[in-house]
Design a protein that fits this description.
Pfam families: Phosphorylase. It contains 33 helices and 25 strands. The protein is an alpha/beta fold and 822 residues long. Helix 3 packs across helix 19, helix 11 packs across helix 14 and helix 13 packs across helix 14. The longest helix has 29 residues. Bound molecules: C-(1-azido-alpha-D-glucopyranosyl) formamide.
């Protein structure tokens, strides 16, 4: 693989780069150096970068076509891409060259990068994982396409009004987006609604003809995905919905102007907005239509590409792999069956055998509320032909698999059936995924074990070889090389340029873990990153914090199982200790939160409110002499994470054991030298194995202990009455101390932890968590020890490179060959 840090593929020097930027400013943007806004300079810089991307994209596509390569198609309802300018420059190995070119034009590249809106087409970990994966697929030189939805509005923009989350529409494409290309030549027409006619052919052959009630046009937008080194440039193809030329002239001609537009408006709503739920199913008809729309567009696109070089489907499964990123694209299964049987005329079993070889499924959560099930009546109306096919798959499965293994066992049948027979009857998308896919994987070792043992035990008995694990990873290009350039330069200076391509090369750093000189260099960079963040915090929240304090960071979606409420409870107890004893000896600490709550998730929004209200009182309380600060950063997103993560000292990974499937923020923070305080949950377990128990701070109940405590009956009141500090802290929420004049406004959190049973065992883990924070406090005060721990963390997380995850998928599931793009 070409290492662009050694020799960029495009050897542009700064003068040539500058020339190109000015050329595009004048000819592409139609303005001049004197008049140009920062937005225009940014777009001109992007146009210059696109020249190189498009060239490699064309070579990549031509080579893949010539070599008729097998490819993986990553179907995901979410791609949380963030910004692309810096990432694309680093992957071309031209970031510094571009920076110098712009300097000559009295411009700051970092400044221009701030002009770029995040491409926030995802909710959290699942969407960001998809983005890291397509970066790794291109970097490793595998033929791959990402397929998803071209949402006009991504994840809502979060504003904090008087401490409360307020959602505002995201408009990432307001002034156009330089990184996408519309491909009208590949438009698709997608049927919906209507009815199915059974046609009996003269050869007594039964054929199904679907008479759709509506046709939607699918317009593809391609985003070039350049790998590190720019050898391979794959595409991410996102589908926008538009009214097909199904304009109702009759209605129009009868003056029904608005109605004739109705179709258009309705069609466009399909890709209008991302559903902002993380781990809870939306259950809305539009959500099912969104899922079907992008899956059908993508499969028709794959079919069109395949038929360019094939006349029958014998090679289809050998050429095409489709990864289902959770159950959101499950509808792709009956859609491929429909296309193969109804449109290509294949036999049922032939089509079924192809589907089994083509599809594989990744499960990302055990939360029951996240496992999608759709009412049968909705399928009957929206996708009548697909419902028929699902019934056929179910009948085939129950007869040939379940009955064979568990003859006449209706209980097991009821459990494994794709159809949940309770009223109303529902289609279980996860069961359809497991029954069809040749491989099913979880996203961390403990999670994959629980997927087999707790979520799908009977399926595991039926097909033990079908279940495997692929622990998540993150791309070190964005999450180290691009977001923490000073640390990246130190690593390159110390171990050479190989590490962005082979993160295990950083193991070399461990040799310097006790070296005071290296420790100073490492921690000076951490301090400088913290000083940069101090300015961002001041600008975004008005809060003054000191870079000498411990930066303790919890950044992830707001969910009770992720236990931001446990972090808050500990802050309340610390605050009370300082009020009771101002000499209480702790190293100053800044608790930083970044988190969005699903708009309909009441308790989650209350927790955000409580963090802000408690923070307000603490931050302005002179009695504690600034020893404690609480900062809630509004509008947490990928580009903000890139500023927070390099400045983190402590990484909060405190979910109830057994609930966080993996986590990926934990990997990014450890990679940037933060020390994890965490439970033995998800990938925290594997991080602790890699860095060593001495270099992280583990606390709390294990997965088994959580199960046992819940089994024997857990009462949070026991902990409330047994621990005076817990009691005082929770009783504080009944008062108006944090909400002057509005007593009890924060009571819903106390209720969720007591009256409603504390589902996620926050009180049960409090004492252990508190003790863990005291360990953090003493460890941080031992500067040499802390520096060593930070260096060991950065040196030991090579495993969590998304390149390794992709290699695991290739070896266990996709069986792809790299394709060298000359
Ligand atoms: N949906 N979903 N699941 C998640 C995340 N919330 O997006 O997927 C992520 C990506 O696999 C996991 O890291 C995380 O633990 C899990 O909760």
């Amino acid at each position: 693989m070409v290492n662009p840090m050694e020799k960029p593929l495009f050897e542009l020097d700064k003068d040539e780069f500058k020339q190109e930027i000015v050329h595009h400013l004048r000819t592409t943007l139609g303005t001049s150096e004197k008049k140009a806004s920062k937005q225009a300079w940014w777009m001109a810089t992007c146009a210059t970068i696109n020249q190189m991307l498009f060239e490699r994209l064309t070579s990549t596509q031509q080579t893949h076509l010539q070599k008729d390569t097998r490819a993986v198609h990553y179907f995901s309802a979410e791609f949380l891409m963030g910004r692309l300018t810096a990432n694309n420059l680093h992957n071309l190995g031209l970031y510094k060259t571009c920076e110098e070119a712009l300097k000559d034009l009295n411009l700051e590249l970092a400044d221009l990068c701030e002009q770029e809106p995040d491409m926030a087409l995802g909710n959290g970990g699942l969407g960001r994982l998809a983005a890291c994966f397509i970066d790794s697929l291109a970097t490793l030189g595998y033929p791959a396409l990402g397929y998803g939805l071209h949402y006009e509005h991504g994840l809502f923009r979060q504003e904090i009004r008087d401490g409360r989350q307020v959602e505002r529409p995201d408009s990432w494409r307001e002034y156009g987006n330089p990184w996408e290309i519309c491909r009208p030549e590949s438009v698709q027409e997608i049927p919906l609604y209507g009815y199915v006619e059974t046609v009996f052919g003269e050869d007594c052959q039964v054929r199904k003809v679907w008479h759709p009630g509506r046709i939607i046009k699918g317009v593809p937008w391609d985003i070039p995905i350049v790998g590190f080194g720019a050898q391979t440039v794959n595409i991410l193809r996102l589908w926008e919905s538009r009214a097909s030329n199904f304009f109702d002239w009759d209605v129009f001609n009868h003056g029904g102007y608005v109605d004739s537009q109705k179709e258009k408006a309705e069609a466009e709503t399909i890709s209008k907005v991302l559903y902002p739920n993380d781990e809870t199913e939306a259950g809305k008809e539009l959500r099912l239509v969104q899922q079907y729309f992008f899956c059908a567009c993508s499969l028709k696109d794959i079919m069109r590409r395949y038929k360019r070089t094939h006349t029958d489907f014998k090679e289809f499964a050998a050429q095409i792999a489709v990864q289902l990123n959770d159950t959101h694209p499950t509808i792709a299964i009956p859609e491929l069956m429909r296309e193969l049987i109804d449109e290509e005329g294949l036999e049922w079993t032939e089509a079924w055998n192809i589907c089994k070889q083509v599809f594989s499924y990744t499960n990302h959560t055990l939360l029951p509320e996240a496992l999608e099930t759709w009412p049968v009546y909705l399928f009957e109306r929206v996708l009548p032909r697909h419902l028929e096919i699902i019934y056929e798959i179910n009948a085939y499965f129950l007869k040939n698999e379940v009955d064979a293994k568990w003859p006449a066992n209706n209980e097991i049948k009821r459990k494994l059936s794709i159809i949940d027979e309770s009223n109303p009857r529902r289609v279980r998308m996860a069961n359809l995924c497991v029954i069809t896919s040749h491989k099913v994987n979880g996203v961390a070792e403990i999670h994959s074990k629980l997927v087999k043992e707790d979520l799908f035990p009977e399926f595991n008995q039926l097909w033990p070889d079908k279940f495997c694990n692929v622990t998540n990873g993150v791309t070190p290009r964005r999450w180290l090389l691009s977001c923490n350039q000073e640390l990246a330069d130190l690593f390159t200076e110390t171990v050479g340029t190989e590490w962005p391509l082979n993160l295990d090369a950083l193991r070399e750093l461990a040799k310097y873990a006790d070296d005071p000189v290296f420790q100073k260099k490492f921690m000076d960079i951490k301090l400088h990153n913290k000083e940069k963040l101090v300015k961002v915090i001041k600008a975004e929240t008005g809060i003054d914090v000191s870079a000498d304090a411990i930066f303790d960071i919890q950044i992830k979606r707001l969910h009770e199982y992720k236990r931001q409420q446990l972090n808050l409870l500990h802050i309340l107890v610390l605050y009370r200790r300082l009020l009771l004893n101002p000499e209480y000896d702790i190293h100053p600490r800044v608790f930083i939160f970044g988190s969005k709550a699903a708009p309909g998730y009441r308790v989650a929004k209350d927790i955000i409110y409580a963090i802000n209200k408690v923070g307000e009182r603490i931050n302005d309380d002179p009695r504690i002499k600034g020893k404690l600060k609480v900062v809630f950063m509004p509008n947490y997103r990928v580009s903000l994470a890139e500023k927070l993560i390099p400045a983190a000292d402590v990484s909060e990974q405190i979910s109830t054991a057994g609930y966080e499937a993996s986590g990926t923020g934990n990997m990014k923070l450890a990679m940037n030298g933060a020390i994890t305080i965490g439970t033995l949950d998800g990938a925290n377990i594997e991080i602790a194995e890699e860095v060593g128990e001495d270099n992280c701070v583990i606390f709390g109940l294990t997965v088994e202990e959580v199960k046992e405590l819940k089994a024997r009956g857990y009462s949070p009141w026991d902990y409330y009455y047994a621990n005076a500090e817990i009691k005082s802290a929770l009783d504080w929420l009944d008062t108006d101390y944090f909400t002057p004049g509005r007593p009890g406004e924060l009571q819903s959190i106390k209720k969720s932890l007591l009256d409603y049973g504390d589902t996620y065992l926050t009180l049960a883990d409090f004492a252990s968590y508190d003790e863990a924070h005291q360990r953090i406090n003493s460890l941080y005060r031992d500067k040499a020890r802390w520096a060593k721990m930070a260096i060991i963390n950065a040196a030991s997380v090579g495993k969590f490179n998304s390149d390794r995850s992709i290699q695991d998928y290739v070896r266990q599931i996709w069986h792809l060959d790299k394709c060298d793009i000359s």
